[in-house]
């Protein structure tokens, strides 16, 4: 398990992969602070 306590994280999710909100929840459970979160479409 990764410990992100005290870390600030920018999340860039993928529309056809793992969306930003799903990654954001994982970051929060690992103790990190999400400062930016988005889901983009990479074609």
What does this 3D model show about the protein?
- The protein has 43 residues and is an alpha+beta fold.
- It has one domain (8-40).
- The chain has one helix and two strands.
- The protein has one helix at 20-29; strands at 8-14, 33-40.
- A two-stranded parallel sheet has the order 1-2.
- α1 (20-29) links the parallel β1 and β2 (33-40).
- The longest helix is centred in the middle third of the chain and has 10 residues, at 20-29.
- The protein starts with 7 loop residues before the first strand and ends with a strand.
- The model has no long low-confidence stretch (mean pLDDT 95).
Strand content: 25-35%
Distance between the termini: 32 Å
Count of discrete structural domains: 1
Shape: elongated
Number of strands: 2
Discrete helix count: 1
What can be said about this structure in brief?
The protein has one domain (8-40).
Keywords:
43 residues; alpha+beta; two-stranded parallel sheet; elongated
Helix-strand blueprint:
Elements: E1 8-14, H1 20-29, E2 33-40
